[in-house]
Amino acid sequence: MLYKLLQKRRSVRTFEPRAVEPEKLERIFQAALLSPSSKGIQPWSFILVDDPALLTTLSNCKPHGASFLANAAFAIVVCADLEVATAWIEDCSIAAINAQIAIEEEGLGSCWIQIRGRKTQDGKPSTEYVKTSLSIPDRLEVEAIIAGGYPAEPQIPHSLEDLKWERVHHNSFGKKLSLLKK
Ligand SMILES: Cc1cc2nc3c(=O)[nH]c(=O)nc-3n(C[C@H](O)[C@H](O)[C@H](O)COP(=O)(O)O)c2cc1C
Questions:
Q1: If DSSP states are collapsed to H, E and C, what string results for the chain?
Q2: Atom of ligand 1 nearest to the CA of 68
Q3: Residues contacting ligand 1 via CB (< 6 Å)
Q4: Domain extents in the chain
Q5: Which amino acid residue places its CA nearest to atom 26 of ligand 1?
Q6: I need a labelling partner for 51 at 20 to 30 A (CA). Which of 68, 70, 76, 104 fits?
């Protein structure tokens, strides 16, 4: 089941104009909160945004790759408390992908929107733009925003034929992996 889900998951950037059921959102956050983290510190905070005006504001956090947020049913803003974290990028990335997998499991779609290291149209850090828009305290850093909702178009699953198996090595770099007896 998990393997099929992983194959089916694609980035979704067009959404149906309908709300997502609260129980689905609760399970998605449950999945994120169950994530492993360095030293078990769990440095993350998640902000659910479902106010259409705020979604539109967030869609302007950078000039490319975020405009579709305006039509998402919800967004999850993934933040980390830098005062406590020892590996915040890893911790937040794991929590974000767990949320994306849960979103898929709920029959929804999602897309990661990179915030860390990105700039707004007028050259300011996107993270500051998001922090100001949502009153996020200074000590927090914003890593990414996950846009979600019901996909407006069917997703085309990844093809197993196209997997880059040459990126997997066996015992030493450059040695092909050969697990199955032919
Ligand atoms: C770290 C990271 C940053 C990404 N940033 C963006 C982004 O800012 N905007 C966007 O539309 N997609 C973004 N994506 C989605 C990728 O473009 C997408 O995952 C990739 O093209 C593979 O397609 P798939 O998700 O359908 O398998 C990001 C994905 C990752 C993992």
A1: CHHHHHHHCCECCCECCCCCCHHHHHHHHHHHHCCCCHHHCCCEEEEEECCHHHHHHHCCCCCCCCHHHHHCCEEEEEEEECCCCCCHHHHHHHHHHHHHHHHHHCCCEEEEEECCCCECCCCCEHHHHHHHHHCCCCCEEEEEEEEEECECCCCCCCCHHHCCHHHCEECEEEEECCCCCC
A2: 11
A3: 10-11, 13, 65, 111-114
A4: 2-155
A5: 10
A6: 104
